[in-house]
């Protein structure tokens, strides 16, 4: 069941326990929420902000993420949705522990198999402009973290072979993708279906999507990458200002600075451009 909202809420989704634990360690005053379908989250305050964060460990895969994220958003009605976790790096300039903030997320498996070969049908979801701007601002002042605002590839596979056909497919079709993971497209699609919801995928690089993945994981790379990604997520939320209560409740958008004269239409329908004249009369 949902919980009455007293502060602006952000939902932070994870797939693995190591990702959940890294985000959980940053929150205070935690209590558990159990939705009607049995989905469990913990909710707490993010120190230094007005945000209440609800975190969930959903398990692996974009399909599971999309289904459960839609359910969680419907119950908690958050202002923001983040997916925070680990990923495999795809570019030569990446190091283990780097963080990739997703400017967009690609679903890499869509396409058509023909006698002439596989014809890709790319799908992409862009990260929230508001959150990306907060991320770029926060990262300028975040010491000790190498972060990249770049696209992320998402597929239902753990990539551990730099010579694989999938790696080559991504290189040819999604050349600007910096990292690969398994859940970001599900979270992004859920945010899209839910309508007006800021969403962002933040991933720490725990391996380089090659044959050394197992060795890196055994050396603790996932814990390092998850902690770095959680730290970046917290920095983004500290920089990202929540909407006003009126805007969160579906009322008037917040006014930021002077935007010139405005004409408001309430309770009516209009089509096409509007031409008018503002006078001192109210009739």
Rg for CA atoms: 21 Å
Cα shape: globular
**Order of neighbouring strands in the sheet with most strands:** 5-11-10-6-12
Q: Could you tell me the strand content as a percent range?
A: 25-35%
Q: How helix-rich are the residues, as a percent range?
A: 25-40%
Task: Write the element-wise H/E pattern from the N-terminal end onward.
Answer: EHEEEHEEEEEHEHEHEHHH
Number of strands: 12
Given the structure, what is the number of helices? 8
Uncertain runs are: 1-5, 252-279
Q: What's the mean pLDDT score?
A: 86
Class by SSE composition? alpha/beta
Distance separating the two termini: 48 Å
Largest sheet: 5 strands, mixed, barrel
Question: Would you kindly provide a written description of the structure presented here, covering whatever features stand out?
Answer:
- With 283 residues, the protein is an alpha/beta fold.
- It has 8 helices and 12 strands.
- The chain has helices at 17-24, 62-76, 129-140, 165-173, 184-193, 213-218, 221-239, 245-248; strands spanning 9-14, 28-34, 40-45, 52-57, 80-89, 99-107, 111-114, 117-120, 123-126, 147-154, 179-181, 198-207.
- It has a 5-stranded mixed β-barrel with strand order 5-11-10-6-12, surrounded by 4 helices.
- Strand 3 (40-45) and strand 4 form a beta hairpin.
- Helix 1 crosses helix 7 (221-239) and helix 3 (129-140) packs across helix 7.
- The termini are far apart.
Relevant terms:
alpha/beta; five-stranded mixed barrel; two-stranded antiparallel ribbon; globular
Task: Provide the fold topology.
Layout: E1 9-14, H1 17-24, E2 28-34, E3 40-45, E4 52-57, H2 62-76, E5 80-89, E6 99-107, E7 111-114, E8 117-120, E9 123-126, H3 129-140, E10 147-154, H4 165-173, E11 179-181, H5 184-193, E12 198-207, H6 213-218, H7 221-239, H8 245-248
Parallel strand pairs: 1-4, 1-5, 5-12, 6-10, 10-11
Antiparallel strand pairs: 2-3, 3-4, 5-11, 6-9, 6-12, 7-8
Helix pairs in contact: 1-7, 2-5, 3-7
């Amino acid at each position: 069941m949902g919980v009455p909202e007293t502060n602006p809420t952000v939902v932070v989704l994870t797939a693995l326990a190591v990702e959940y634990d890294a985000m959980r360690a940053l929150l205070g005053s935690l209590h558990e929420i159990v939705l009607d379908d049995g989905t469990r989250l913990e909710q707490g305050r993010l120190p230094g902000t007005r945000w209440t964060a609800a975190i969930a460990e959903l398990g692996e895969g974009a399909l599971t993420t999309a289904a459960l994220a839609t359910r969680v958003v419907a119950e908690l009605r958050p202002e923001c949705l983040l997916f925070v976790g680990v990923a495999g790096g795809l570019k030569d300039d990446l190091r283990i522990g780097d963080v990739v903030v997703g400017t967009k997320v690609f679903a890499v498996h869509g396409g058509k198999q023909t006698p002439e070969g596989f014809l890709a049908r790319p799908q992409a979801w862009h990260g929230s402009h508001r959150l990306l701007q907060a991320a770029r601002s926060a990262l300028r002042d975040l010491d000790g973290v190498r972060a990249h605002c770049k696209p992320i590839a998402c597929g239902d596979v753990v990539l551990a072979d730099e010579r694989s056909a999938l790696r080559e497919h991504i290189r040819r079709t999604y050349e600007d993708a910096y990292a690969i993971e398994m859940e970001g497209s599900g979270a992004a699609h859920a945010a899209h279906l839910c309508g007006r919801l800021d969403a962002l995928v933040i991933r720490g690089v725990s391996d380089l999507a090659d044959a050394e993945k197992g060795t890196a994981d055994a050396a603790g790379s996932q814990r390092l990458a998850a902690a770095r990604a959680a730290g970046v997520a917290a920095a983004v939320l500290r920089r990202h200002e929540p909407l006003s209560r009126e805007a969160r409740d579906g009322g008037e958008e917040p006014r930021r600075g002077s935007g010139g004269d405005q004409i408001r239409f309430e309770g009516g329908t209009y089509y096409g451009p509007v031409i008018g004249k503002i006078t001192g009369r109210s009739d």
